[in-house]
Write a structure and sequence with these properties.
With 458 residues, the protein is α+β, with helices and mostly antiparallel strands. The chain is 35% helix and 19% strand. The protein has a single domain, classed as Creatine Kinase, Chain A, domain 2 (2-Layer Sandwich). The strands form 2 sheets. Strands 7, 8, 9, 10, 11, 12, 13, 14, 15 and 16 form a 10-stranded mixed sheet that branches. Strands 1, 2, 3, 4, 5 and 6 form a 6-stranded mixed sheet that branches. The radius of gyration is 21 Å and the shape is globular. The protein binds glutamic acid and magnesium ion. Glutamic acid (GLU) binds next to loops.
């Protein structure tokens, strides 16, 4: 059961833990290629029986797009899988006064002989993290910073970050914080973001797999909280082709097996330790391929354009909110070396919530692993607006514009061998079929219609 971490929703008419009827459903879910959580529900009385065997699942489900049609499946109607719950991710929240009753758990997709299925994104992340530890003695902690739009805010341009904008969000911000807290997430910050109705919520860093689980949980609980207020929260990459995007920014840092921070070295360039430099080097190298996985919607590429504070080049920046990868500043004066190292982290900005957080983090780790395997040096930190450079000057810096469409990003992914080496052929083939079919579904739509489709889907 999820610990009840605070009393700040005390006045809520919450059922005491364990007081659900045992016929109440708990849904076992898998985070999938379409960026959705899908699964099957079982009555809670079946938990013990199904703890090991889980619920049955079908390979072709991973080809269900977020828009209805099923992409051409390599499996058709054939094959069976088990979706086994991992109760460390359980959410059990019954808050009837808030119109919220959430009971779900994330799980792993296994073949019938118990092996991880290649298209299980949670399993892909777990394996990448295992290799990081096995081959390099490193662990990764991460924190996802989410942006989304809340539908029921009296929207007015010019109120970005304003107290007035927070007030106009009504009961939603405080209620969301209470819900996330009750679900066991450690709260960091909430802010009314720049766009009208846009919000940003951040939770504390956690070990890699838990961080991705929490990102999935946070998205669902944000939607559920909004729904309880008769509103909607949309995590679509961009809602208006001329408006501001909703990014998912992934903060991460490396630790040793004992949990000691390993990203910072005061004597190294930019303060980035040798292993962290190699890890970042791998990401910068693979960014033009990775975006097909981390920014996987057709309108994601309306967001990944220069001068929007998102990410448009394969660069590492410092104190630069246009860099795809950023060395984050450490706030505070008079910090001990230990405190400084503990706060030092990096931020991957070229992601959005059309992607499963598990795939985003797996892509980051797999790219970082390549850098570690090859001992890559720290990429040159760019210090100017790359959008203002002529192509020659950009090339001289060894930097390039990221692909400008999902199709171009998939071309890059397919042209190289990194993805298949990192994730295996089965997943990459399923992924490319799924995403090519999605592009096809959108091909007649105007940018406005496209944004509207994704606003509903996410
Ligand atoms: N909304 C911006 C994006 O699309 C990010 C703004 C910021 O938080 O720096 O990524
Ligand atoms: Mg933001």
């Amino acid at each position: 059961m999820t610990p009840n971490r605070s009393q700040n929703a005390e006045s809520q008419n919450a059922r005491p833990q364990g007081a659900r009827p045992d016929t109440d459903l708990i849904m076992v879910c898998t985070p999938d290629i379409a960026g959705q959580l899908r699964g099957k529900a079982m009555p809670r009385r079946a938990i013990e029986r199904r703890r090991e065997i889980g619920v049955g699942w079908t390979p072709t489900n991973v080809m269900i797009t977020a828009f209805g049609p099923i992409a051409p499946s390599p499996w058709g109607a054939l094959g069976d899988l088990m979706l086994r719950p991992d109760f460390s991710s359980e959410v059990d929240l019954a808050l009837p006064d808030w119109g919220l009753d959430e009971s779900f758990v994330l799980g792993d997709l296994l073949t019938l002989d118990g092996a991880p299925w290649e298209c299980c994104l949670r399993g892909q992340l777990a394996r990448a993290l295992e290799r990081l530890e096995r081959d390099h003695g490193l662990r990764l902690i991460a924190s996802f910073e989410h942006e989304f739009h809340y539908s029921d805010a009296e929207a007015q341009p010019g109120l970005g970050y304003a107290l007035r904008a927070l007030r106009r969000l009504g009961a939603f911000p405080n209620r969301l914080m209470a819900v996330l807290d009750r679900a066991g997430l450690e709260l960091d910050t909430f802010m009314p973001e720049y766009g009208p109705g846009q919000c940003e919520v951040t939770v504390a860093p956690q070990p890699g797999l838990r961080a991705a689980d929490e990102a999935s949980i946070l998205r669902e609980l944000t939607r559920a909280t909004a729904r309880g207020l008769g509103a909607r929260a949309s995590f679509a990459p961009i809602l208006d082709p001329n408006g501001v995007g909703n990014g998912v920014h992934v903060h991460f840092s490396l630790q040793d097996r004992e949990g000691r921070p390993l990203s910072h070295d005061p004597a190294a360039p930019e303060g980035v330790s040798k292993p962290a430099a190699a890890f970042l080097g791998g990401i910068v190298r693979r960014l033009p391929e990775m975006v097909a996985l981390t920014a996987p919607g057709v309108p994601s590429y309306l967001r990944l354009t220069p001068n929007r504070w998102s990410a448009a080049f394969n660069n590492l920046g410092s104190q630069d909110r246009e860099a795809s990868l950023r060395i984050c500043p450490v706030f505070g004066t008079g910090l001990s070396a230990e405190q400084h190292a503990g706060r030092f982290n990096f931020e991957y900005r070229a992601a959005d919530a059309a992607a499963s957080p598990h795939l985003v983090l797996a892509a980051i780790v797999n790219a970082g692993l390549e850098g570690l395997d090859e001992g890559l040096p720290l990429p040159t930190v760019t210090t100017q607006n790359l959008a203002e450079l002529e192509p020659d000057a950009l090339a001289a810096l060894g930097r390039e514009r990221l692909p400008t469409s999902l199709a171009a990003a998939l071309d890059r992914l397919e042209a190289g061998t990194w993805a298949t080496r990192a994730f295996g052929e089965v997943l990459v083939e399923a992924y490319r079929r799924h995403k090519r079919a999605e592009i096809d579904l959108m091909k007649e739509l105007s940018p406005e219609e496209l944004c509207a489709r994704y606003a509903l889907a996410y």
